[in-house]
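Narrative of activities, Objective 1.

The group set out to show that a structural description can be obtained from nothing but a protein's sequence at a throughput compatible with the screening campaign. Below is one input-output pair from the validation batch, recorded exactly as produced.
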Amino acid sequence: MRPPQPRPHGLPLAGYGARLVARLIDLGVVFLLNVVVNGWFVWRYVEEFTPYFREVFRRGLANNPSTEGLPQPGEQAGGLQVAILLIATALWFAYEVPAMAGNGQTLGKRLMGIRAVPVEADQPLGFGRALRRWSTLGLPTLLWYCCGLGLLLQLVDAASPLFDQPLRQALHDKRAQTVVVRLPHAPGAGTGTATPHDPANPPGDTP
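Output recorded for this entry:
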């Protein structure tokens, strides 16, 4: 027989689908913030590469495979790339870390009715733990320019709960010693406040 699913602090573990949708919502919010704050830098970066891609496209239409004499990006391209990644990382940090430190929920987690809590106690994460949790997933953004290495690390982290037992922890959960639970569908569930346990129904295994 399969062992019963653990119930950290009397709450069921969040499913991977709910966690994925919550993360996509959060990434959408961060993307919109980048459109507002980072838009000008991205536009200037694209401008630096436009002559290169325009010439490559023209030669492709003319069946000309030559790469000689292609216009090169301007000197500002490298600095713009660094600025874009730094701003994107800072916006993600500002959006996620304070919210997670307070009640373990971002907007996406709140909408999906899930929350991150420490493994050892049902309490707020605090700034230090929230920072450790975010940095494992967020800081690799700075490595996107390294042939997509940062993005690869983030994809591995995002998929890691699928292969972890019994607590379904992502790599960032393991570093911060957190677990993601599903909140009960009851008044106050969306606020991150768990309902009291019924003495007649013990909460089950608590790691």
